[in-house]
Design the sequence.
């Protein structure tokens, strides 16, 4: 289908209201296959306003007299209002936006057409391959190897082509372990913690079922993990489901690792919400943040009843448990829930941020996202199909990645000097996960990206974020490298609502942006002053 078939009108005169304290913008409104754009008149500012149609989550239209109003609620939580001249033009534009914003084809999405100046196709896709992280692990221990048993994605479609596994386990054993795990997600290394010689692994649930099936190769794999760690090492299996949920999963073919079959490993249940309940929590929070008429009591009640901060608390607590098990108890940790593509990745990535100073740098954090979310098989296309405003009944949507970003924001607030990136980086990742001109978050796994030729036909987000003009918005000017683990408090008094995101539609962003720029200016001036000062020897008088 051609885009032109979905565009019912070419242009119309309109006025755009973008939010609190922003002046209205009036001009000619046009629709393309991927964008809604408004060009001001010749007397006004020459800036062109542009909105990626993929960013539209819901659309409401009203007509009165000879004009109409379209309200666009966006996936990035912004609310826009268009006042359009002409009833027919209003209805045609609304229908066009509805049709173009809901196209599901990946290869007709904007990243396949986006060709920015200064970037070349293929740039930055090679920044974070599994081989890169394996080299870091190999410098510390020879107990692990890089396996290409999944080269054709036959073992696990949601794993990358190469994964890090115990050296003592051959590829045939990996294949049998994959058949015993949900979605083929056999245990693989997520992070090697050099100070304690322990490892963090992730996997899908074992398919023990009601018959209590076993897999000797899977058991061998986890024995090899402990054997490759320090002498006498033990392990914890952090199951992100409740005991009742795990028991119900066993009745339908899933299950847990039986204690007798996995000596040295102890199972710990730390239930984390996922799926529809998490999406509904997100929706209720956004609804509460957008209500400007409520009383203080009602606001506090709604904030509590949506349970979003409770999810943040539970997630941080579980990540701390995994990190403490490795750092303080010298234990290896395997994390899984059911599929192993949502709450599992949430915990493994946060545990690394707590323990690993490199993950808290700009480049290290980007590598962490690529390795633990993109390559590890988080289904971005399904989870981020809609945000908080959509009227469609949730199917596969869930703000798991947003919950991760919120937890990282809490870390940055509690440790303001320890992260090289700032809130701007987290907001950018949130926006690009839901609607982006780059191909990084397209599709649900590496197999799909390979079939769609995403790496050869689209630009990587990481190349866009590395542009000098972006760095000042993304970096933390107060960053000081911290070689130690950072232990966040998950107590209710320590957690805050992420106002920069959830209140962006009702509060102007300028004060925080101005403050951020002021901090940068102070730091820059200080560096210039220190650089221009003479050294002690030069300032001392001669004999």
Sequence:
């Amino acid at each position: 289908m051609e885009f032109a078939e979905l565009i019912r009108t070419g242009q119309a005169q309109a006025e755009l209201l973008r939010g609190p304290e922003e002046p209205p913008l009036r001009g000619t409104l046009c629709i393309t296959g991927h964008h809604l754009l408004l060009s001001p008149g010749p007397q006004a500012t020459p800036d062109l306003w542009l909105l990626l149609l993929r960013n539209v989550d819901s659309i409401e239209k009203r007509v009165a007299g000879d004009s109409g109003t379209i309200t666009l609620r966006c996936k990035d939580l912004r609310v826009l209002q268009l006042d359009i001249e002409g009833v027919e033009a209003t209805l045609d534009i609304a229908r066009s936006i509805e049709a173009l914003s809901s196209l599901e084809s990946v290869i007709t999405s904007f990243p396949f057409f986006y060709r920015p100046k200064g970037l070349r196709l293929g740039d930055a896709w090679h920044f974070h391959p599994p081989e890169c992280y394996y080299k870091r692990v190999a410098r510390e221990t020879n107990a692990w190897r890089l396996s290409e048993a999944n080269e054709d994605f036959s073992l696990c479609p949601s794993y990358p082509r190469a994964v890090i596994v115990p050296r003592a386990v051959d590829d045939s054993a990996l294949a049998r372990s994959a058949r015993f795990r949900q979605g083929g997600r056999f245990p693989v290394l997520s992070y090697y913690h050099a100070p304690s010689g322990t490892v963090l692994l992730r996997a899908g649930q074992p398919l023990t079922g009601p018959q209590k099936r076993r897999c000797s190769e899977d058991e061998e794999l986890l024995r090899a993990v402990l054997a490759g760690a320090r002498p006498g090492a033990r392990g914890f299996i952090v199951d992100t489901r409740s005991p009742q949920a795990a028991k119900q999963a066993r009745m339908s073919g899933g299950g847990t690792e039986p204690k007798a079959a996995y000596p040295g490993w102890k199972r710990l249940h730390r239930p984390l919400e996922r799926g529809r309940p998490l999406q509904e929590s997100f929706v209720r929070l956004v609804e509460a943040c957008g209500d400007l008429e409520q009383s203080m009591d009602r606001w506090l009640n709604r904030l509590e009843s949506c349970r979003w901060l409770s999810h943040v608390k539970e997630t941080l607590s579980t990540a701390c448990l995994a990190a403490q098990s490795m750092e303080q108890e010298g234990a290896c940790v395997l994390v899984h829930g059911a599929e192993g593509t949502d709450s599992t990745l949430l915990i493994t990535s946060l545990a690394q941020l707590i323990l690993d100073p490199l993950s808290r740098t700009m480049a290290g954090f980007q590598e962490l996202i690529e390795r633990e979310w993109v390559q590890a098989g988080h289904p971005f296309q399904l989870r981020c199909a809609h945000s908080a405003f959509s009227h469609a009944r949730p199917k596969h949507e869930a703000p798991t990645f947003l919950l991760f970003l919120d937890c990282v924001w809490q870390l940055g607030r509690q440790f303001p000097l320890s992260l090289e990136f700032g809130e701007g980086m987290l907001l950018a990742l949130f926006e690009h996960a839901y609607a982006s001109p780059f191909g990084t978050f397209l599709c649900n796994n590496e197999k799909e990206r390979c079939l769609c030729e995403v790496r050869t036909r689209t630009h990587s987000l990481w190349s866009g974020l590395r542009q000098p003009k972006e760095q000042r918005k993304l970096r933390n000017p107060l960053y000081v490298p911290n070689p130690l683990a950072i232990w966040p408090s998950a107590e209710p008094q320590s957690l805050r609502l992420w106002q920069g995101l959830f209140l962006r539609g009702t509060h102007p962003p300028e004060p925080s942006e101005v403050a951020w720029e002021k901090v940068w200016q102070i730091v820059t001036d200080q560096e210039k002053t220190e650089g221009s000062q003479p050294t002690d020897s030069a300032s001392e008088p001669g004999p």
Residues 536-543 have pLDDT under 50 and may be disordered. The two ends are 86 Å apart (CA to CA). The first strand starts at residue 11 and ends at 17.
